[in-house]
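CATEGORY: protein folding

GOAL: derive structure tokens
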Amino acid sequence: MNWLHPANMGFAVRRTLDDMGYAARLFLRLLATLVYAVRRNALVRDQVHFLGNYSLAIIGISGLFVGFVLSLQGYYILQRYGSAEALGLMVSLSLMRELGPVVTALLFAGRAGTALTAEIGLMKAGEQISVMEMMAVDPIERVLAPRFWAGVFVMPLLAATFSAMGIFGGWIVGVLMIGVDGGAFWSQIQGGVDVFKDLGNGVVKSFVFGVAVTFIALLQGYNAQATPEGVAKATTRTVVMASLTVLALDFILTAMMFTI
């Protein structure tokens, strides 16, 4: 197909606008299901367990090793300037502001996002979605909404776990292995981390990433072709689109937070 042909270009633009409009309408419908999700909190609770508990191990272990690397690299950088005592502050700020929310969102997209897309896609392939519609059951409220709000709720908790494990890993390498003073390590964190500016910005980022990643996963699963190949392609698109969206949103949010 010759995409430079005016007719083909117009078709591609129209299809893109149609997909964007559909995604926007679906997103607004999911936001409107908050009352339903609160009323049917058992469904949300089950999804919180599925998304959060099963992602906890990879998030915690990854945070620990990221803390190891940050502490090891940071020590040799700070040592050049005689500021090795600030190792704890550097590790904590790097995790809370940036690495915690971003890496958690990327891991969440690879672990939970793909699971959501595959689950919804298989339900569509097995005609379970069609059966719900025939029984006058709204699949958006019954299937998508609990998973969406569970992902939004879980992401900040997972990001906090990642940052906590990263700081603990930084303490292990910096204090126990290298020999940085433990009192200086924790006092620098206590005196240098601002609750609203540093910790609050990380919470906002993780919340936005949770909305974006969960919505992309559900959208790709809900729009997947009802074939094994279609589900596989939708799962791949979830990882690619969610990862790129997280990185783009991270740049936008960081620019906004440092200019306000």
The chain has one domain: 23-259. The radius of gyration is 22 Å. Residues 23-259 form one domain.
